[in-house]
TrEMBL record:
Keywords: Signal. This is Coth protein-domain-containing protein. PANTHER family: INNER SPORE COAT PROTEIN H. Residues 1-20 form the signal peptide. It comes from Thamnidium elegans.
Length: 560
């Protein structure tokens, strides 16, 4: 069949003949101990062998098949995949696939850039958006079970003897990592979020994956689409901001299915170098605190309350996340510079331009960068975010310039998820702050005659470029197609922890688009939010802006 397409002479035919018997097939599968794995091409089974890279990856060479399926063959017959896979005519390898999933790599429409990156980010497969990778962990199951049975208690890491991260084009193996649950309120859920830290039980190695020394596996236990957080991170990146990255993975531990997770950034020493300096060590990276809110009187609103650290409930509200490369930072003293930040923010002159001494650019690195984070927090209705609840942001000091970077994170509660007041979807940004709150950082921009027009310009640009139904709808449609089999699988798995059992089904993926069980749909949120901003500011979402200048990736200056 393949030969019929060849019309360019003998050499091509000879090449095609060689090619025709030369496809490497590879599939991740969990066969029984006496089963074997095969690929079925043109009605014939060709056995696959266990890969030396991973005991659950089966590979082998078999003839080219425009159509093929994998099969698990046991003594009681065989289990053949339900859907036919297709191979491009020129393909010599399938890449690593997953048994029972109909497709491996999807066409996901890209997000157009609103602004070029303000800081050079470490760009790699950590932010991939067109496939679901697989993580296979062999761990101390007793220790992990102990954690999962009592998730709200403090636990040490359980040992990961070895693990593999397998995407369609790569396999990475690690030994001596640690695994435990992660998060705060997410520990109350019956599907726990997890974190994996490399080198935990193998102190001599310097393992990293995509430049990360640890990562989180976010369960998205209260989020029926599992896509909100990813959409926000990708949107921040497309808007030019420094952001955490993520990609979807299915997780297996000791051959047991744990479910679908969003693998995303975790903190480790100077983790912000990955967002701010292309992954190169930046000697000037100082401390990072994490802003958190417990309730309206204990929120990380950056309001100056005098020089005494005891006034700030720092253990719960301004939490030390990372010391960076600053040897002077300690648990006892870190609030000093943070209080200095709030004092200076308090004295910032609202209304003057960036060149005037005493303005916000003396204090934070890039007014534009901070405004992008605020605009996205507002547009997505991130009600537990930096603006509305004064929570879920990192504040990182640059030791050389003494300026601070602001990076927001934690986006499961966005695009209508968990929102108490639907009015947040239509409130103009001038009134978006939580009632009776103080938001000095936000006010610095939106109450300034100098910055407010710039803020509006960022808002309009993001809406015209990508935050609109025209751009987001096809992306959500493609993601729904890609996620639906794994979401159905995830929803069929038993819960492993006590706590809230969210009984979502694959049908709840409708929440990508519309309201389900009074939870506003992602696309519905974007549509209504965009419509009201466009009315309030009298513009439309047509992308009639000039093309962005070509982005020259800045080469970071590697230091210690
Ligand atoms: C094929 O579909 C049936 C019915 O939905 C299901 O029970 C079976 O597990 C599927 N087989 C594979 C290999 O996924
Ligand atoms: C991974 O660890 C398991 C359990 O200790 C062991 O059986 C297996 O051989 C290890 N695999 C590799 C590739 O080291
Ligand atoms: C500014 O500082 C004064 C005291 O110095 C305090 O009363 C006020 O609440 C502070 N405001 C903000 C927004 O930090
Ligand atoms: C904000 O709310 C106040 C009080 O409800 C109202 O008077 C004002 O017009 C609102 N501002 C905008 C821009 O909608
Ligand atoms: C979104 O806007 C549409 C059209 O105006 C409206 O019918 C729908 O109720 C709005 N959604 C919500 C959650 O308010
Ligand atoms: C959108 O606004 C521009 C002006 O910025 C105008 O030229 C254009 O006609 C408008 N498009 C629509 C569809 O209203
Ligand atoms: C990094 O900072 C440390 C401590 O401030 C300093 O001693 C060292 O010289 C710096 N290294 C480089 C390469 O700038």
């Amino acid at each position: 069949m393949k030969l019929l397409a060849i019309t360019t002479g003998l050499i091509s035919i000879a090449f095609a003949l060689t090619n025709a018997a030369d496809v490497t097939y590879a599939v991740i599968a969990f066969p029984g101990s006496s089963d074997s794995v095969a690929v079925n091409v043109a009605g014939q089974d060709f056995p696959l062998q266990k890969s030396p890279m991973c005991g659950n990856l089966f590979t082998g060479v078999a003839p080219y098949g425009a159509e093929y399926r994998y099969a698990i063959i046991g003594s009681n017959g065989q289990k053949v995949e339900n859907t036919t896979r297709h191979l491009a005519e020129s393909a010599t390898t399938t890449g690593n696939e997953f048994f029972g999933r109909s497709k491996t790599v999807y066409d996901i429409p890209s997000l157009p850039r609103a602004f070029n990156p303000i800081y050079p980010a470490l760009e790699n497969a950590m932010s991939r958006d067109n496939e679901i990778s697989t993580i296979i962990v062999n761990a101390d199951m007793n220790a992990l079970d102990t954690i999962l049975k009592a998730p709200t208690e403090d636990h040490e890491f359980a040992q990961v003897y070895n693990m593999s991260y397998i995407s369609h084009d790569a396999i990475y193996n690690f030994e001596g990592a640690g695994i435990k649950n992660s998060g705060q309120s997410s520990k109350d859920m019956a599907k726990q979020s997890l974190k994996i830290k490399f080198n935990k039980f193998n102190k001599l190695s310097k393992d990293r994956l995509f430049g990360r020394r640890s990562f989180k596996l976010r369960a998205e236990a209260n989020e029926p689409t599992m896509a909100r957080e990813k959409l926000m991170m990708d949107s921040l990146a497309a808007a030019g901001a420094a952001t955490l990255s993520s990609n979807w993975v299915r997780l297996f531990v000791n051959n047991q299915p744990f479910g679908l997770f969003l693998m995303s950034d975790d903190s480790f020493t100077a983790f912000t170098d990955n967002f701010l300096n292309g992954g190169s060590a930046m000697n000037s990276t100082g401390l990072t605190i994490k802003g958190n809110a417990m309730d309206p009187t204990n929120e990380a609103n950056m309001v100056y309350k005098g020089p005494n650290a005891a006034s700030y409930n720092s253990n719960d509200v301004y939490i030390l996340e990372d010391k960076g490369r600053d040897p002077t930072v300690s648990k006892k003293s870190y609030m000093g510079p943070v209080i200095d930040f709030m004092d200076r923010l308090n004295k910032t002159v609202i209304g003057s331009d960036a060149q005037t001494p005493g303005t916000i650019t003396d204090l934070i690195d890039s007014a534009e960068h901070t405004m992008i984070h605020l605009v996205m927090s507002f547009l997505s209705g991130s009600w537990d975010g930096i603006w509305y609840q004064a929570s879920n942001y990192y504040l990182t000091q640059n030791r050389d310039t003494k300026k601070w970077y602001i990076i927001t994170y934690d986006f499961d509660e966005t695009f209508g998820n968990g929102v108490e007041d639907d009015k947040l979807m239509t409130t103009p940004y001038q009134n978006y702050s939580r009632p009776d709150s103080q938001r000095p950082l936000v006010d610095t921009f939106i109450k300034s005659p100098y910055y407010d027009p710039k803020f509006q310009d960022i808002l309009k640009t993001i809406i015209k470029r990508f935050f609109n139904v025209r751009v987001i709808k096809p992306r959500l449609e493609a993601w729904t197609e890609m996620l639906k089999e794994d979401v159905a699988w995830d929803r069929s798995l038993p819960f492993r922890s006590p706590g809230d059992k969210e009984k979502f089904t694959v049908k709840d993926l409708d929440n990508m688009f519309t309201t389900v069980d009074s939870r506003i749909g992602i696309l519905e949120w974007i549509s209504n939010r965009t419509t009201s901003v466009c009315q309030q500011l009298n513009f439309n979402d047509t992308d009639d802006l000039p093309a962005l200048p070509t982005y020259e990736k800045q080469v970071p200056n590697p230091t210690a």
